[in-house]
Amino acid sequence: MSPPAFAAPIDMKPTLLVLAAGMGSRYGGLKQIDPMGPSGETILDYSVYDAIRAGFGKVVFIIRPDFEADFRERIATKFAGRIEVGFAFQTLDRLPAGFAVPAGREKPWGTTHAILCARDAVTTPFAVINADDFYGRDSYATLGRQLATLANADLTFCMVGFTLKNTLSDHGTVARGVCRTDSAGRLTDIQELTKIGRTAGGAENRAEDGTVTPLSGDEPVSMNMWGFTPAIFPLLETDFRAFLQAKGGELKSESYIPMAVGNLVAGGRAHCDVLRTSSAWFGVTYREDKPAVQASILDLVRQGTYPAALWA
User: Fold this and answer.
1) Which domain holds residue 40?
2) Which terminal residue of the chain has fewer beta carbons within 10 Å of its beta carbon, N or C?
3) Which positions ≥6 away from 163 have C-beta within 8 Å?
4) Is position 127 within any domain?
5) Are 181 and 188 in contact, with CB atoms under 8 Å apart?
6) Calpha distance 238→111 (Å, rounded)
7) How far apart are CA 229 and CA 216, in angstroms?
């Protein structure tokens, strides 16, 4: 059963931008292509399926050039005829004029840089997601509706805010961007907490220095599901230049989208609406998480949210 067609002209539909440059060419043990669905579907399959039925007209994969051929053959070909597919390439040397890769640098520059590398492949309002996160049908529907209201020049962006307690692992701590919003539901601040675990009363973060931050578990958190317009590209380049000036000589520093958006909001250069979703987030942070993710997807199939064979 294929997703239903969307009525809007193809050049007006939003684009799905998938952060996949972290995937490798030896796929055997990587969670991004690990079968999770009852017919061998990967999490990425469900992401594209949900995006199609939410009205997205194009998917762009941000990958590394060295595994383009393998990626096209193993992953992208299944989407042919269902949605337009494009590619963008993240390489260390794709930097603004005046900057160079420091000797010994091997680590990518982060998700801000990845999105900037896709600048030429995006011509409509667009969503950004991780390749290995299961965001759920309602999340794509909610984000798709919001993006359909935006013009390319709009400076009001958005993100899907998941409920913290629905994103925790039973097998260890996780890193989450905990969001604060104003009375209108607009983002005012994102705090990156890297050691969040469950507690009897909700959750808490235990920092490396021993500081404990109690959390209710009901806080909205960023799972890297964003909605932007092309107007963000020059803003991101300015922010990325500032990052490079401050930390570009370091060998492992990275610029992340939550940090960049937080800077834009704090500086009054853009707004960001936090969209709440009823979807539960699934992810394989630890190997032990996989059976629970598979069981959750199977439950959704049994409920009729997805067909048993996604692309049949």
Assistant:
1) 13-153+223-302
2) C
3) 217, 218, 219, 220, 221, 276
4) yes
5) yes
6) 15
7) 33
SS3 275: strand
Q: Which amino acid is at 157?
A: F
Q: Is 90 domain-assigned?
A: yes
Q: What gap in Å lies between CA 60 and CA 116, rounded to an integer?
A: 13
232 C-beta neighbours (distance < 10 Å), count: 28
Residue 222: in which H helix or E strand, if any? Answer: strand 220-228
- 55 falls within a domain: yes
Indicate the average pLDDT of the chain: 89
Specify the DSSP element, H or E, that contains 45: helix 43-53
Residue 37 lies in a domain: yes
Return the pLDDT at 123. 95
Provide the token pair at 11.
Answer: 């050049």
Q: Looking at the predicted structure, is the pLDDT value of residue 78 above 70?
A: yes
DSSP letter string, 111-126: HHHHHHHTGGG--S-E
Which tokens go with 180? 């604060």
Which residues are 199's β-sheet partners? 202
Which CATH number fits the domain that encloses residue 130?
3.90.550.10
User: What does the pLDDT read at residue 8?
Assistant: 42
- Which amino acid, one-letter code, is at 117? C
Count up the domains in the chain and report the number: 1
H-type helices in the chain, by residue range? Answer: 43-53, 68-74, 111-117, 137-148, 232-247, 257-266, 290-302
How far is the C-alpha of 227 from the C-alpha of 250, rounded, in Å?
30
| pLDDT of 72 higher than 80 | yes
Spatial distance between the Cα atoms of 297 and 121, rounded to a whole number of angstroms:
31
Torsion of CA 245, 250, 254, 255, to 10 degrees: -10
CA angle, 270 as apex, 268 and 273 as ends, to 5°? 115
